[in-house]
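Before the break, one more example. Copy the sequence into your notebook; we will annotate it together after we see the structure.
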Amino acid sequence: MSGTVVLAHVESAGLHGGAAQLLRLGPLLALLLVAAWALVERAGTATPSLSRRLGAGAAVTLGAAGAIHLALVGQHANEGLASAAFFAAAGVTELLLAVALWRTPGSRRSALAAGVVAGGLLVLYGVSRRWSIPAFGGQEAIDTLGLLTKLLELVGAVLAAAAARTWSLRPIRPPLLVAAAALAVAFAGQGLFGLGAAPWQVVVVIVLTVGIAVASGASGRPELAMAATDGAVLALLVRASGLGPYLLAGALAGLLRVAARRSARLALAPVAVAALLVLAVPPLDARMELLHVSHPGDAIAWMAAFLAAAALALGVWQSGRLPVVAGFFLAHLGLQALRLVAGQTSLEAVEIPAASLGLFLLATVVLADAQLTPASAIPAALVGVAAGGIDVVLRALGTPYAPLLAVTIALAGIAPFRSISPDAAAEEAAALAASCPARGQTHRGRNGPG
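Here is what the structure looks like once it is written out:
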């Protein structure tokens, strides 16, 4: 499998030179773009608003597309001066648009200009892939980097138009966004990547986790979405041939989620603990799936993984847990880089798990669980750093299932310091009252925060 990954990287690098190295980041590229979006929004001088946030997103996506165009100027100079000049002009134009959208996010002129530029470049991309354009060196093939650039331009134009709108938008709640991304990947995994559980196995795990949530009294969409996400992520991370491991994993995760909802002091990650317990039983013959699916040579699979990662990163950001994920990957990559310098590991042994969708799911869904991690930036970042550091230490020791253990240990370690939220405190009080109800009084449980 490692050989296949390396060959895919070589193929991509050969097509676009240094610019194609971006594709090797896989899901991390989506996280970097979302983190840049958050930083650009905070760097603005205007009063925080929805228009400001959308304008910052348009600036980041169009700016990234412009930077890619400029990085490709050298390669296209070999095809002719006209091709190089076009890529340079496109890159500079998009960077100027990015600055304008950041400074005046509600400007209709800037939004119109972004739409015209993105639309023109998208049409030209389609024409150059359908017919031969001599100035561009002939007919070009559809490639991953080109599709990514067009996606960034399209998203930038849409965000710019939304920033200049006069009507209100109803944002998608973070648990629903994360659940939608996890469910889409879980059900499409085998078809897109050739990896993942069979659809019927995915259904079994999700039915169990959601069923247990409903039986425990959960009825709100965020709580049910969280339960469905647990099932989807479990189906992606655990690989087994029979039904038993998935039944056990789903039941354990469902029960642990109910326990975590009812007690703020119980900081056990349902997915991580359930997966570890299933993997620890030899007769079940289960293993952990790495999900290294972002091979640049496979454009459809790469784009699907990127879109899923972008949705997960946006959901994490909107829930206030972006520092958790950033801390995890900064610690993980930093310590792995030190191991590389010391000659204790190889580049492939670092790159493949770091750029895998499996590790990204663990960081964005399991570790950055809004029910378990702190909302404040610094404590959240410290939790992420702790998990990322433990992960690398366990890898250095040759410990199996290092990321699952790291997430479990980091979340369990903060349990004594967690404060009980008002909803959780009210639920615990209700549970206490239910243990000795007044005569003739019935009790009905409440759901904790999603």
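Residues 1-14, 420-450 have pLDDT under 50 and may be disordered. The chain has 19 helices and two strands. Try to locate both features in your own notes.
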